[in-house]
Amino acid sequence: MLEGIEVHPIVAGAYTDGRGGVCPMLAAHRHGERTSFPSFARAWDAFTNVERVRRVTPHELHVLTTLLEESLREETDFAAAIAEHREAIARRELARPVIRARRLSPARRRAGAGRAARTAW
Prior knowledge:
Number of helices: 6
Helix content: 55-70%
Strand order of the largest sheet: 1-2
Shape: elongated
Structural class: mainly alpha
């Protein structure tokens, strides 16, 4: 992908812009990468905050390049970062109050319907 984004004009919001610009995944594909990550495309479009296809800004391209380069460094431990993120999500879920809901019995539904009819505006 790094090779592709150096050679091709990069866009967000579509696969291509019809004027030579391509998304980062297509740029990677054109330079030998044969994987597909739809989640990357969604994340890329969300990061660039696009509503229609456009060329990316120099800042957006710099962020993408930096993230790709960092992902190739040997010191980066993505497995640990992912595990830490999942633990944080689990802690957050445990902190939420438990809401228990159940269906009303037929008798209570009938009783509640009458009250609702009397209090409707």
